[in-house]
Each structure stands twice: as structure tokens, then as C-alpha cells.
DNA sequence: TATTATTTTTAGCTTTGCCTAAAAACAATA
DNA sequence: TATTGTTTTTAGGCAAAGCTAAAAATAATA
């Protein structure tokens, strides 16, 4: 099928595409993948040759239907493995990402199907990210960012948009995890930092943090 | 650490070393790894530079202590993953080898330890091959080849020295698996083929087959 | 609009791991 | 021992995926 590197590019394009409407830029890809822009240009041309992306010089790339399906398959594997590691192998949620980055490239249709079955066909991974099904359908949850709430709102944490171990450990220390109930107490206008109540404790979160926390109210 | 390719070479040298006393030849490696002799020579020189093997031109290679430990670690992962696939994910024993060839290269000490714990620290994989422990110790079973038995002997199958799906499926059809009890009825002198009794049925096995079946009596 | 700054692409190199063909070393045999 | 045959190594190349430095295109600004 496709190389590990190609799969990583497709996944990166997929993630960046969720945030912008038009083409994904060379520089954003090179930043996310820790490579140089020149390397991205080269790879992107190869992906275009294989009909995985549409590419117009200087205008960025977009996944084709084929490329999107391929990306979804990798995302599916990544999130299933993360679920497996947390649910069955006693991993903490901040320990799984690096290993899942490796496991997501294992090629075996049967393995994915059996793993999914074994885990009880979960819809969300340990970070609250939706797991695409075998056909690439994503369970669409109407999530808001915590930063979009007003003082007085109550909500439940449903996702975290930062895979770094340091952010996830920080959340642990604050007592914030999946399905944690919170109440917004106050928002400072000068820096948009937020004071929230979690388990009877009041804590303060920066705008950067509240942007990375998804909630349902 | 080491590349996937380097790990495959170390594992191949390890396996070949179990059958010969002195150095592993370039040609045997190239055959096992499906590469050309020239490629083996090159890689072997790199492994020697990294102190993983001892190499003398024209005399073959042998693993150093470091190389052996590394090989054992890969073998351990391969066999633990095979056990996982069969014990937990409904794989048949002839379906696991290819996938384990991929999974054995995943790098995570915690993953190996937790997987081992999850499986109840098994000593043997689905093919009866011993699983090295975390320190590289192999449970040493004094196994014989079925071909070494005489007419009248009874024994129990404890291992199979051929990873090919076709051989394992053949055994399935004959009703032979791990811990199957057998009795040797007759050995033909002209081709060393053997008639054995399995579950009240008499079947005939070639010398090639009986060489690949390990038993305990 | 002309100039400057930024982004993207091109050109040319490097490393890894493989290949083929030719040379060298070792093994077998007349 | 001299010749022939086999195995191993060397030499020279190739594709993948990265890099730096320079050129080209686009964007920003005077
Ligand atoms: Mn992740
Ligand atoms: Mn995740
Ligand atoms: Mn195997
Ligand atoms: Mn096995």
C-alpha cells in the first residue's frame, strides 16, 4: 500500500484540513511534521502522482476522496490503539500517543476489525476524539471549545485538542478529564483567562488551555 | 535504537545460529531474508561497526552479547504478539506470523511489559516456541524432532519449526496441533516417511514434515 | 505601483538499504 | 598442484525521504 511517511503526510493534511477551508499550506505541514518546506513540496508531488491529493503549485494541497479514506483509516487505527492501551494495558492517557504513532502503521485488515470488536466498538478514544468506523464515518459530536462558554455556563468535558503529554498531565493535576463536569465562574476580559469550578475547587485556565478543551453543555 | 532492517538481520542471525555452531554464512542470511548476498555483506559490516556482531571476512558472522540481547528482545516481542493475536483476537495460528513481523518492531518497553502481564506471562507462543523473558532467558524444553522417534514410541506435540501458513494449515487438516498426543506406528526405510496415530486415525507424514514437528515423550 | 519581505519551489547532496556485474577468495577436483 | 567451480566481497547505481542554499512566485508595504 502506502509508506509510513506517506501515511503520516495524509494524516497531517487531514488534521489541518479540519481547521481551514481551502488548501493546506506547505509551511503548516512542515511545521506539524517537523520537516523542512522543501521536503513537503517533494512529498506532496508524489502524493498527487498517486491521486491521493490535489495539488496546485503555491496554492497548497487538499485530500482527494481516496486520500481522505486512507487518512481516515490511519486515524481509526491510531485511536483504536490508544483505546486499547488505556482500556486494557494500564497506560495513562498521556502515555499513548507516541506508541500509537507507531502502531497506526501496522497493516492488517483483520487486526483492525478484531481489535475494534475486542474493545466493544468504541466511538471515542481516551482523549475524546471520535473513532471513524470501518467505512470512514466519524461520529459527529457538536462540541464547543470551553473558551466559547460564558460565565455561569455548566458543561462536561468531551475532548482535548492537544496530544502533548505535558498538556494532558497538566489537566490531570487540575482534576480535569473526560466527562468531568465544570462550571464557568468568571472570564477576565484582558487576557480571556477563565476561572472554573471543578469538584468544588476553583481553578484558573489560560485562553490557550480553554481553546484546547472541548465541552458539551 | 536500531532500524527495522537491522533488527531483522539480528533476528535472522539468531535463528541461524541455533542450527550451526560456527559463523552464519552470507548466503544463508540472504536466503532467509530474501535479499542478495551483496546486501548482506554490506549490512553485516554495519552491524559489526555497531558491535552487534563479530564479523571476519569470508568466515560469517556471530552475534555479540549485545546483538544477542537485541535479537532476543525482538523474538520476545514477536512471540508475545503472536500469543496476543491468537489468545485475544481470534486469529488462527497460521494467520499471525506476518502481522507479528510488523508488530515486533514497535518500540515501547512499557508496551512489552504490559502485554506480557496482560497475557499472563506465557512461556510459549501458539506454535510452541519459547518466549524469552524480560532478561532474555529462554525456557529450555528438551524437545526432540518427531523424526527422531522409533516405531512404537508415544509422544506429545510441542512445537513446529516452520512458520509458513501452508504447513500450519496442513497440520490443522491432519488434526495435529499443540499438545496433540501421537503414537508412531511405522517408519518406511526407503523415504523415512512415518505413519502415526492421531485421535484413532492413521496418517502418513513425510520426512520433511516430521523434521519440522517437535515432540516431548 | 515599485520595492521589500515571506513563502514556496527547484537544484543539488546525503543516508539507508537494496540491486547487478565484476573481482577476489575459498573450496573441490582432476 | 593446477584448474575449475562456488561463495563472498567490492564497485558502481538506484529509489526513498530527508537536508541546505538559491531561485521564483506570491504577499505586504511604502
Ligand atoms: Mn494521539
Ligand atoms: Mn487521541
Ligand atoms: Mn512467527
Ligand atoms: Mn511463533
From TrEMBL, chains A, B:
Keywords: Activator, Cytoplasm, DNA-binding, Iron, Manganese, Repressor, Transcription, Transcription regulation. Gene3D superfamilies: 2.30.30.90, Iron dependent repressor, metal binding and dimerisation domain, Winged helix-like DNA-binding domain superfamily/Winged helix DNA-binding domain. It comes from Mesonia profundi. In the presence of manganese, represses expression of mntH and mntS. Up-regulates expression of mntP. This is Transcriptional regulator MntR. Homodimer. The keyword Cytoplasm applies. Its main location: cytoplasm. It is found in: Cytoplasm.
Amino acid at each position: 500500500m502506502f509508506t509510513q511517511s506517506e501515511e503520516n503526510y495524509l494524516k497531517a493534511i487531514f488534521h489541518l484540513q479540519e481547521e481551514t477551508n481551502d488548501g493546506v499550506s506547505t509551511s503548516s505541514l512542515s511545521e506539524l511534521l517537523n520537516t523542512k518546506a522543501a521536503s513537503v513540496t517533494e512529498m506532496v508531488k508524489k502524493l498527487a502522482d498517486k491521486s491521493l491529493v490535489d495539488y496546485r503549485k503555491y496554492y497548497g494541497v487538499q485530500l482527494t476522496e481516496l486520500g481522505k479514506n486512507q487518512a481516515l483509516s490511519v486515524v481509526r487505527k491510531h485511536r483504536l490503539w490508544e483505546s486499547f492501551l488505556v482500556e486494557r494495558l494500564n497506560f495513562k492517557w498521556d502515555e499513548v500517543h507516541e506508541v500509537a504513532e507507531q502502531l497506526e502503521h501496522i497493516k492488517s485488515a483483520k487486526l483492525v476489525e478484531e481489535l475494534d470488536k475486542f474493545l466493544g466498538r468504541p466511538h471515542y478514544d481516551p482523549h475524546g476524539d471520535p473513532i471513524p468506523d470501518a467505512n470512514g464515518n466519524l461520529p459527529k459530536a457538536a462540541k464547543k471549545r470551553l473558551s466559547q462558554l460564558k460565565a455561569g455556563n455548566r458543561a462536561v468535558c468531551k475532548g482535548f485538542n492537544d496530544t502533548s503529554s505535558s498538556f494532558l498531565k497538566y489537566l490531570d493535576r487540575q482534576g480535569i478529564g473526560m466527562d468531568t463536569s465544570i462550571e464557568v465562574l468568571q472570564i477576565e476580559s484582558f487576557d480571556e483567562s477563565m476561572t472554573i469550578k471543578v469538584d468544588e475547587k476553583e481553578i484558573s485556565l489560560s485562553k490557550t488551555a480553554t481553546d484546547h478543551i472541548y465541552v458539551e453543555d
